[in-house]
Design goal:
Blueprint (H helix, E strand, L loop, with lengths): L3 E6 L2 E5 L4 E7 L2 E5 L7 H10 L7 E5 L5 H4 L2 H7 L4 E3 L1 H7 L9 H5 L7 H10 L11 E3 L13 E4 L8 E5 L4 E5 L25 H6 L1 H4 L6 E4 L5 E2 L2 H11 L5
Parallel strand pairs: 4-5, 5-6, 6-7, 10-11
Antiparallel strand pairs: 1-2, 2-3, 3-4, 8-9, 9-10, 11-12
Bound molecules: zinc ion.
Zinc ion binds next to helix 2.
Amino acid sequence: MSPTVTQVGDGTYLVGGTDVNWTVLTDGDAVTLIDAGYPGDERLVLESLRSLGFRPEQIAAVLITHAHIDHVGSLPGLLRRATFPVHTSEREARHARREYLEQATALDLVKRIWRPGHLRWSLAITRAGAARHVRVPEARPFPGGGPLDLPGRPVPIVTPGHTSGHTCYHLPESGAIVTGDALITGHPTSRVTGPHLVAPFFSHDPAGTLAALDLLEPVAADLILPGHGPAHRGPIKEAVALARERATPAR
Ligand SMILES: [Zn+2]
């Protein structure tokens, strides 16, 4: 399997791994990585960087949307290859360090295995290391507020809900927003395409996930780079309205 690398803007790439995305922002000889796939996606992360002409030593920083295994899984492996800072919100940094865990358990998944798409997906993510225990002791809060001094000049927007410290990243220069699992556009366990919320069972606080859309609505972005599903072009205001409309009650 190869990573799917899609250029979505100047120095901005959305990469698909094992049913999960990461974002690569390049500037000269340095690169910002936002999220890092499953543990088994390490090779795909490296390959995506290599295909754009970068080595792990050129990672200026890794930013985390949230510390679920499908978004931080390859970080321990990457950190054995190169040294770089890992940043997220103050709250999510604690989650990444595994001072606590807010993630559906393997048993929660098994209970849903009969649903359409779940079995194939469960096998794929298990192969990718979904059941492994990963912690990122290196995770630290952002060094300051406002745009980060990194390739892509990302601006963190804390959007608690999916996890308590979930963070999106606005990229003002390309009018894009990296939404992690606060707003997705596709998932193997769902037939819904286009902007929508993850199934409530995946979220630590489903009501909070819905409420966090209020924080995304006013952002000046017309390109959504989600944690799952393809990039979506269109005003964020409309994407948020659609996600609200489609939001299903917790079950
Ligand atoms: Zn995810």
